[in-house]
Structures are given as C-alpha cells and as structure tokens.
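Onboarding guide, step 5: your first structure request.
Type a short instruction followed by the sequence, for example:

Predict the 3D structure of this protein.
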Amino acid sequence: MSLLAAGKVNYRARIERAELLAERFSSAKQILVFYGHIARFQKEFYEQLPKVWGKKAVAPVGGNLRAELNLPILLEPFGKLLSVIEAEGPGPLSAHARQVRSGGQDKWEGILKDFWKTGLLEPTEAERLTEFLARAFLQPYAEFLESAQLPPSLPMTVCRCPRCNSLPVLGVLRPEGDGGKRFLLCSFCSQEWEFRRIFCAHCGEEQEQKLPVYVAEQLPHVRVECCETCKHFLRTIDLTKDGNAIPIVDDLAAIPLTLWAQEKGYTRIQGNLLGT
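The system replies with structure tokens like these:
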C-alpha cells in the first residue's frame, strides 16, 4: 500500500483557502477567521523549526513520531500561541489561554508532554480547552517531524496513522484515472495513507449496503461516509469534484454536515481542531 510522498506543509495555501471560504460561507465565517489567526502562528512556527532545532536528529529513532519532545525549543513559542488565543479566541477559550499562560513554563511543559503521549489516540471530552491549545501548537511540530521521514511501508489497510497511531480526521479522494483513490488523513501529523474505498475506517465493516454516503447540495465536494454497524462517520473531501479544496480547511466549513450527522445518531471518528 502506498503513501503520498512527504513534503513541506503549505500553510499559506491553508490561510488563503480559509479566507476564501470565510467569504463564501457566512455560517462558518467566524470559525474560519479564527482559524486564520491560528494558521498564521502555525506557519511562522513551522518555518522556524529547522532554524532552531539544534544538533538533535529530526527523524525519531525507529520512526516513532511520539518519541521525546525537543522541549527547549517549544516553550517560548507556546507562550506566543497562548497570547494569540487570548487576543483572538472566543471568550471561554481566551480566558483559559490566559489562565494557562499565567501558570508558567512548568505547567506548559506538563500540558505538552501529556498531549504528545496520548493526544488524539482516542476521542475524549476531558479538558477540551487544554487539549485544543496543545493540539493547535503541536500539530506543526508533528508535521515537521513527519515530513523529515520516509513513508512507512504498509502491508494492509490500517485505520490509524502509521506514523503516530492517531485516529483519522478525514478521508480524501484524490483523482486517479476515471475515478478517485481514497486516503485517510491523520488528525495530528497530517500523514495521508491509502485506504480501501468500501471499508469503514472505524470498525472495518465492508458490506456496501451498510456504508451509506451522503452529500449536501451546498457542499457537493464534501461527503459524509457513515457506517450502520458502528454508527460512526468519516467526512471526506472529494478532490475529484473540487481540485482547489484544502481538506483540513474545507472540513472546518462543513458545520451543517456535522449537525446533520449528529441528529441522525452518528459519531465522528475524530473531530477537527475546532470541533466543526
């Protein structure tokens, strides 16, 4: 099974797509504008990492992405992110960022270590605001580590990221021949890996009649792929219908599809950064 070739993350494209979709979808404008502030921080942080990394090898020994954090280079930029969230985030999140920032670097270190070890391995409702801060900050760090490694070899379909073991946040259909090839997108390090078209990414159900797909007229390139066996759903960005889509950004704009799926009793395998 093949994976997409590793490469640098294009944060500028994410920012520009968020600006475009914010104008196109009024229901998601506030979310996308806020995401733009986060993405601008992430872009600067991601671009600084190779300059400040030091002599330590970037690629973790054995390919384990969740190996020890390079903490000396992380604490100062984490403080900067907290300031961004405090200034630009919605009330409760802004207040929480202020509280965390006042806790000092010892508290920050514990938050980052805990999330790096266990974050996004399972869905959780606990400490959601703290989880958001750690996830927003460590995502570009994880993407930087992932981009420095060769793609792993996969002997079979896997439902978790082969790089960091996180749950998938999205499916992606990329054009191939007269159709599309399906990939899963990691919720943490943004690794994409090839995945079977007719197969539940949560429980492995493979009977097509139990795997309905729904598409809304206002978002024809966004699919809601459901499973009647486990009652989970995966949102998939169909690049065969909109080649300009940026999956991680277009997903944020699909708020009505999440509400619809929840009303029908489906649970998302893993939510996106902003819970949309």
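Each response can be followed by summary notes, for example: DSSP finds eight helices and seven strands in the chain.
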